[in-house]
Amino acid sequence: MYSAKVRGVKDPMLDAKRLFPAEATARAVAVKLYETVRNLPIISPHGHTDPRWFAENKPFPNPAALFIQPDHYIFRMLYSQGIPLESLGIPQEDGKQSADPREVWRIFARHYYLYRGTPTRLWMDFALENVFGLRERLSAANADEFYEAIEKKLQTPEFLPRALFERFNIEVLATTDGAVDSLEFHQAIKASGWKGRVLPTFRPDAVVDAEFLGFQDKLKKLGEVSGEDVSNWKGYLAALRSRRAYFKKNGATATDHGHLTAQTADLPLAEAERLYQRIFSGRLQPGDEELFQAQMLTEMAGMSVEDGLTMQLHAGAIRNYNAAVYKKFGRDKGADIPSPTEYVRALRPLLTKYGNEPNLTLILFTLDETTYSRELAPLAGHYPSVKLGPPWWFLDSPEGMMRFRESATETAGFYNTVGFNDDTRAFLSIPARHDVARRVDCAFLARLVAEHRLDEAEAFELVKDLTVNLVRKAYKF
Question: What is the pairing mode between strands 337-338 and 317-318?
Answer without folding.
Answer: antiparallel
